[in-house]
Amino acid sequence: MSNKMKSNPPLTILTITIGFLVLYYFFEKDVLLYISMTIGLIGVFSTYLSKKIEYLWFGLARILSYIIPNVILTIIFYILLFPIALLSKLFNNKDHLNLKNNKNSLFIDNNKEFDKSYFEKMW
Asked: For 17-21, 65-69, 104-108, which range has the lowest pLDDT when averaged over its residues?
């Protein structure tokens, strides 16, 4: 199943141009300004080159879509989740998942009484 975006080269060229202008604003490198002006002029004067730039831009986006989520998830796992799990394992003695099955059954007998008001607002 293919999910293709509608092609809109002028909008893509405008987005890339503004992106390079924003980068120029932060880094103040003249080459970024020249790249922005070049891509903007290409977008104004050549539809063919605009389509080629858009094709390359979406190709780069596709390649990055395979790499970046894995990097972000790896960082989240090792910076956030792993230390929390390790600290929880070190400082918490309870076996919430009943992994150490010391009983004959995992059934927990619950003799709680429910009244009518309990079911009126469930959430």
From this structure: 104-108
CA 34, 8, 13 angle in degrees (round to 5)? 5
C-beta separation of 34 from 19 below 8 A: no
pLDDT tier at 1, thresholds 50, 70, 90: very low
Least Cα distance to 8 among 59, 60, 43 occurs for 43
C-alpha pair distances (Å), 67 with each of 2, 40, 58, 89, 110: 20, 28, 14, 31, 48
Average pLDDT over every residue of 1-14: 80
**Would the CA dihedral through 26, 30, 36, 37 be positive or negative?**
positive
| Other Cβ atoms closer than 10 A to 54 | 21
Q: How far is CA 94 from the centre of its chain?
A: 34
